[in-house]
Specification:
273 residues, alpha/beta, Rossmann fold, eight-stranded mixed β-sheet
Length: 273
Protein backbone atom coordinates (compact mmCIF):
# COMPACT_ATOMS: atom_id res chain seq x y z
CA UNK A 1 0.00 0.00 0.00
CA UNK A 2 1.27 3.43 -0.89
CA UNK A 3 2.55 5.46 2.10
CA UNK A 4 0.23 8.37 1.32
CA UNK A 5 -2.82 6.14 1.13
CA UNK A 6 -1.82 4.38 4.38
CA UNK A 7 -1.52 7.71 6.15
CA UNK A 8 -4.90 8.79 4.80
CA UNK A 9 -6.57 5.61 6.03
CA UNK A 10 -4.96 5.94 9.46
CA UNK A 11 -6.06 9.55 9.75
CA UNK A 12 -9.59 8.63 8.67
CA UNK A 13 -9.76 5.82 11.20
CA UNK A 14 -8.52 8.10 13.97
CA UNK A 15 -11.05 10.77 13.01
CA UNK A 16 -13.90 8.24 13.07
CA UNK A 17 -12.70 6.91 16.44
CA UNK A 18 -12.52 10.44 17.81
CA UNK A 19 -16.04 11.20 16.61
CA UNK A 20 -17.30 7.99 18.21
CA UNK A 21 -15.70 8.89 21.53
CA UNK A 22 -17.23 12.36 21.35
CA UNK A 23 -20.66 10.86 20.59
CA UNK A 24 -20.35 8.50 23.57
CA UNK A 25 -19.30 11.34 25.85
CA UNK A 26 -22.19 13.50 24.66
CA UNK A 27 -24.69 10.71 25.22
CA UNK A 28 -23.31 10.11 28.71
CA UNK A 29 -23.79 13.79 29.56
CA UNK A 30 -27.26 14.28 28.07
CA UNK A 31 -28.83 10.88 28.75
CA UNK A 32 -30.86 12.02 31.76
CA UNK A 33 -32.49 14.81 29.79
CA UNK A 34 -33.54 12.16 27.24
CA UNK A 35 -34.66 9.60 29.83
CA UNK A 36 -36.42 12.07 32.11
CA UNK A 37 -38.15 14.77 30.01
CA UNK A 38 -39.62 16.39 33.11
CA UNK A 39 -42.70 18.60 32.97
CA UNK A 40 -42.15 21.10 35.78
CA UNK A 41 -45.66 22.60 35.90
CA UNK A 42 -46.75 22.49 39.54
CA UNK A 43 -49.22 19.62 39.99
CA UNK A 44 -50.84 21.55 42.84
CA UNK A 45 -52.62 23.60 40.16
CA UNK A 46 -54.55 20.55 38.94
CA UNK A 47 -55.30 18.59 42.11
CA UNK A 48 -58.96 19.64 41.95
CA UNK A 49 -59.45 17.30 39.00
CA UNK A 50 -59.57 14.31 41.36
CA UNK A 51 -62.42 14.06 43.88
CA UNK A 52 -61.31 14.37 47.52
CA UNK A 53 -57.66 14.88 46.55
CA UNK A 54 -55.34 17.34 48.26
CA UNK A 55 -51.68 18.25 47.89
CA UNK A 56 -49.19 17.06 50.48
CA UNK A 57 -45.44 17.64 50.64
CA UNK A 58 -43.10 14.73 51.23
CA UNK A 59 -39.54 15.19 52.47
CA UNK A 60 -36.85 12.77 51.36
CA UNK A 61 -33.79 11.61 53.26
CA UNK A 62 -31.61 13.67 50.92
CA UNK A 63 -33.58 16.87 51.60
CA UNK A 64 -35.80 17.11 48.54
CA UNK A 65 -39.41 18.32 48.83
CA UNK A 66 -41.90 16.38 46.72
CA UNK A 67 -45.43 17.29 45.75
CA UNK A 68 -47.94 14.46 45.99
CA UNK A 69 -51.69 14.00 45.64
CA UNK A 70 -53.41 12.36 48.57
CA UNK A 71 -56.88 10.84 48.51
CA UNK A 72 -57.63 9.44 51.97
CA UNK A 73 -59.40 6.07 52.10
CA UNK A 74 -63.07 6.06 53.11
CA UNK A 75 -62.24 4.01 56.21
CA UNK A 76 -59.45 1.99 57.76
CA UNK A 77 -60.42 -1.19 55.91
CA UNK A 78 -59.99 0.18 52.39
CA UNK A 79 -56.86 -0.45 50.32
CA UNK A 80 -54.48 2.39 49.48
CA UNK A 81 -52.58 2.76 46.21
CA UNK A 82 -49.03 4.12 46.19
CA UNK A 83 -48.67 5.37 42.62
CA UNK A 84 -45.50 6.05 40.61
CA UNK A 85 -46.01 7.82 37.26
CA UNK A 86 -44.11 7.58 33.97
CA UNK A 87 -41.16 9.60 32.72
CA UNK A 88 -43.02 11.77 30.20
CA UNK A 89 -46.11 12.31 32.34
CA UNK A 90 -47.22 14.16 35.47
CA UNK A 91 -49.96 13.61 38.02
CA UNK A 92 -52.08 16.11 36.08
CA UNK A 93 -52.29 13.72 33.11
CA UNK A 94 -53.45 10.85 35.29
CA UNK A 95 -56.49 12.49 36.94
CA UNK A 96 -58.98 10.19 35.20
CA UNK A 97 -57.06 7.11 36.28
CA UNK A 98 -56.85 8.31 39.88
CA UNK A 99 -60.57 9.04 39.95
CA UNK A 100 -61.31 5.48 38.81
CA UNK A 101 -58.91 3.88 41.29
CA UNK A 102 -60.47 5.74 44.23
CA UNK A 103 -64.12 5.66 43.11
CA UNK A 104 -65.18 3.10 45.73
CA UNK A 105 -63.42 4.59 48.72
CA UNK A 106 -59.89 3.44 48.03
CA UNK A 107 -57.05 5.69 49.11
CA UNK A 108 -54.23 6.91 46.91
CA UNK A 109 -50.88 8.65 47.28
CA UNK A 110 -49.46 9.66 43.90
CA UNK A 111 -45.92 11.02 43.95
CA UNK A 112 -44.57 13.70 41.63
CA UNK A 113 -40.99 12.57 41.07
CA UNK A 114 -38.10 14.87 41.97
CA UNK A 115 -37.67 17.43 39.22
CA UNK A 116 -41.26 16.93 38.05
CA UNK A 117 -44.44 18.92 38.69
CA UNK A 118 -43.47 21.18 41.58
CA UNK A 119 -41.03 18.79 43.26
CA UNK A 120 -37.45 19.88 43.94
CA UNK A 121 -34.30 18.11 42.78
CA UNK A 122 -33.24 16.38 39.58
CA UNK A 123 -34.39 12.96 38.33
CA UNK A 124 -32.26 9.84 38.70
CA UNK A 125 -32.74 6.18 39.55
CA UNK A 126 -31.27 6.53 43.03
CA UNK A 127 -33.22 9.74 43.57
CA UNK A 128 -36.48 8.03 42.62
CA UNK A 129 -35.75 5.34 45.19
CA UNK A 130 -35.42 8.02 47.84
CA UNK A 131 -38.75 9.46 46.66
CA UNK A 132 -40.44 6.07 46.93
CA UNK A 133 -39.10 5.51 50.44
CA UNK A 134 -40.32 8.95 51.52
CA UNK A 135 -43.80 8.18 50.21
CA UNK A 136 -43.82 4.75 51.88
CA UNK A 137 -42.76 6.30 55.21
CA UNK A 138 -45.39 9.04 54.93
CA UNK A 139 -48.16 6.46 54.46
CA UNK A 140 -46.90 4.58 57.49
CA UNK A 141 -47.13 7.81 59.48
CA UNK A 142 -50.78 8.10 58.40
CA UNK A 143 -51.48 4.68 59.86
CA UNK A 144 -51.62 2.82 56.53
CA UNK A 145 -50.38 -0.71 57.17
CA UNK A 146 -48.55 -2.77 54.52
CA UNK A 147 -51.50 -5.17 54.50
CA UNK A 148 -53.59 -2.44 52.85
CA UNK A 149 -50.94 -1.13 50.47
CA UNK A 150 -50.98 -1.72 46.70
CA UNK A 151 -47.88 -0.45 44.91
CA UNK A 152 -48.71 0.71 41.38
CA UNK A 153 -46.07 1.64 38.81
CA UNK A 154 -46.51 2.80 35.23
CA UNK A 155 -43.85 2.70 32.52
CA UNK A 156 -40.58 3.98 34.00
CA UNK A 157 -42.21 3.88 37.44
CA UNK A 158 -42.56 0.11 37.24
CA UNK A 159 -38.90 -0.34 38.11
CA UNK A 160 -39.29 1.64 41.32
CA UNK A 161 -42.53 -0.16 42.12
CA UNK A 162 -40.82 -3.56 41.74
CA UNK A 163 -37.82 -2.44 43.78
CA UNK A 164 -40.00 -1.10 46.60
CA UNK A 165 -42.17 -4.21 46.61
CA UNK A 166 -39.05 -6.37 46.76
CA UNK A 167 -37.51 -4.45 49.66
CA UNK A 168 -40.51 -3.29 51.73
CA UNK A 169 -43.68 -5.00 52.93
CA UNK A 170 -46.83 -4.47 50.88
CA UNK A 171 -50.00 -6.31 49.95
CA UNK A 172 -49.99 -6.31 46.15
CA UNK A 173 -48.26 -4.98 43.04
CA UNK A 174 -49.62 -3.50 39.81
CA UNK A 175 -47.38 -2.93 36.78
CA UNK A 176 -48.48 -0.99 33.71
CA UNK A 177 -46.20 -1.41 30.66
CA UNK A 178 -43.12 -2.73 32.51
CA UNK A 179 -39.67 -3.32 31.06
CA UNK A 180 -36.77 -5.61 31.90
CA UNK A 181 -34.18 -2.81 32.19
CA UNK A 182 -33.86 0.72 30.87
CA UNK A 183 -30.30 -0.10 29.81
CA UNK A 184 -31.60 -3.00 27.69
CA UNK A 185 -34.28 -0.81 26.16
CA UNK A 186 -31.67 1.86 25.39
CA UNK A 187 -29.38 -0.72 23.81
CA UNK A 188 -32.16 -1.69 21.42
CA UNK A 189 -32.64 1.95 20.43
CA UNK A 190 -28.94 2.80 20.23
CA UNK A 191 -27.26 -0.43 19.09
CA UNK A 192 -24.11 1.47 18.08
CA UNK A 193 -23.45 2.66 21.65
CA UNK A 194 -21.87 0.71 24.56
CA UNK A 195 -24.96 1.37 26.68
CA UNK A 196 -23.97 -0.94 29.53
CA UNK A 197 -20.85 1.17 30.07
CA UNK A 198 -22.56 4.53 29.66
CA UNK A 199 -25.85 4.02 31.50
CA UNK A 200 -26.08 6.17 34.63
CA UNK A 201 -29.56 4.84 35.47
CA UNK A 202 -29.77 1.21 34.26
CA UNK A 203 -33.04 0.64 36.16
CA UNK A 204 -32.77 -3.14 35.99
CA UNK A 205 -36.13 -4.60 37.01
CA UNK A 206 -35.16 -8.22 36.42
CA UNK A 207 -32.77 -8.24 39.36
CA UNK A 208 -35.71 -7.63 41.72
CA UNK A 209 -38.37 -9.77 40.02
CA UNK A 210 -37.30 -12.94 41.80
CA UNK A 211 -38.06 -11.26 45.14
CA UNK A 212 -41.69 -10.41 44.36
CA UNK A 213 -43.97 -12.63 46.43
CA UNK A 214 -47.17 -10.58 46.67
CA UNK A 215 -50.19 -10.92 44.34
CA UNK A 216 -49.36 -9.09 41.12
CA UNK A 217 -51.33 -7.75 38.16
CA UNK A 218 -49.44 -6.79 35.00
CA UNK A 219 -50.88 -5.34 31.81
CA UNK A 220 -49.27 -4.31 28.54
CA UNK A 221 -50.31 -3.24 25.04
CA UNK A 222 -49.41 -5.72 22.31
CA UNK A 223 -48.52 -2.84 19.97
CA UNK A 224 -46.50 -0.81 22.47
CA UNK A 225 -43.91 1.25 20.55
CA UNK A 226 -42.30 2.66 23.69
CA UNK A 227 -41.70 -0.50 25.73
CA UNK A 228 -41.90 -3.71 23.69
CA UNK A 229 -44.69 -6.09 24.66
CA UNK A 230 -42.14 -8.92 24.80
CA UNK A 231 -40.32 -7.09 27.60
CA UNK A 232 -43.49 -6.97 29.67
CA UNK A 233 -44.03 -10.69 29.17
CA UNK A 234 -40.44 -11.48 30.11
CA UNK A 235 -40.65 -9.40 33.28
CA UNK A 236 -43.98 -11.00 34.20
CA UNK A 237 -42.54 -14.50 33.79
CA UNK A 238 -39.68 -13.60 36.13
CA UNK A 239 -41.93 -12.51 39.01
CA UNK A 240 -41.51 -15.10 41.76
CA UNK A 241 -45.09 -14.93 43.03
CA UNK A 242 -47.45 -17.73 42.06
CA UNK A 243 -50.40 -15.36 42.39
CA UNK A 244 -50.00 -13.25 39.27
CA UNK A 245 -52.07 -12.25 36.28
CA UNK A 246 -51.12 -10.80 32.91
CA UNK A 247 -53.57 -8.87 30.73
CA UNK A 248 -52.78 -8.20 27.07
CA UNK A 249 -54.28 -5.02 25.61
CA UNK A 250 -54.68 -5.95 21.96
CA UNK A 251 -53.95 -2.63 20.29
CA UNK A 252 -51.21 -0.09 19.67
CA UNK A 253 -50.79 1.96 22.85
CA UNK A 254 -48.57 2.72 25.81
CA UNK A 255 -50.01 3.14 29.33
CA UNK A 256 -53.61 2.33 28.31
CA UNK A 257 -56.78 3.43 30.07
CA UNK A 258 -57.55 1.34 33.15
CA UNK A 259 -61.31 1.72 32.70
CA UNK A 260 -61.59 -1.71 31.05
CA UNK A 261 -59.32 -3.21 33.71
CA UNK A 262 -61.18 -2.13 36.82
CA UNK A 263 -62.71 -5.58 37.37
CA UNK A 264 -59.22 -7.10 37.56
CA UNK A 265 -58.03 -4.33 39.86
CA UNK A 266 -61.00 -4.75 42.19
CA UNK A 267 -60.34 -8.50 42.20
CA UNK A 268 -56.79 -7.74 43.31
CA UNK A 269 -58.10 -5.51 46.07
CA UNK A 270 -60.26 -8.35 47.33
CA UNK A 271 -57.15 -10.38 48.00
CA UNK A 272 -56.27 -7.90 50.72
CA UNK A 273 -59.25 -8.84 52.87
Amino acid sequence: MMPVLRKLLIRSALAIAALYVVACAAMYLVQRSILFPADTRDVALDVGKVPNASVVTLHTADDEALKAWWVPPADDTRPVYLYFHGNAETLATRDGRFALLTAEGEGLLAVSWRGYGGSSGAPSEQGFRQDALAAYAWLKEQGITPQRLIIFGESIGTNIAIWLSATQDSAALVLDSPYTAISELAQQRYPWLPVQLLARDPMDSMQWASRITVPSFVFHCTGDRVVPYAMGKELFAALATNDKRFESIDRECHVPSVEALMTQLRDLEEKLH
